[in-house]
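Figure 2 data, in text form.
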Amino acid sequence: MRTMNIIKRTPVIRIAIWKDEKDTLSDIRRRVFIEEQDVPEQMEWDEYDESSKHYLAALENKVVAVARLKPDGQLGRMAVLTEYRNQGIGSALLRFILQDIKNKKPIKIYLHAQVSAINFYKKQGFIEHGEIFYEADIPHRKMLLGI
């Protein structure tokens, strides 16, 4: 029997400034949310992009995942390009974000998880809260970080 060695690549994750890296951050979100998931473009862009903290993950100098944290503690717009999913990149990005905010002023961290991603967030300590609701015709559920 033949075995395969699967090599997981470690992404470089960092904080990104919206005004400096808007094109890169927007490109990933456009590809994942607008093109892949059919989210209406007018729903994707909002007034929170400039005031939010943004994060990105790159492999070999190519940005493959992004996320943002709004000032009120809502984590969102987390997107990993299709061909880079299930490789631990989203988990690494989320761990980086949680570590980054760990010692900041105490705010409640929450998110609106697509139902298909609930288990992903549970693994990082988020707890389901409330009923399923729809955003852009996609079922979501609010989740709170269990601190």
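Caption note: The first helix runs from residue 18 to 36.
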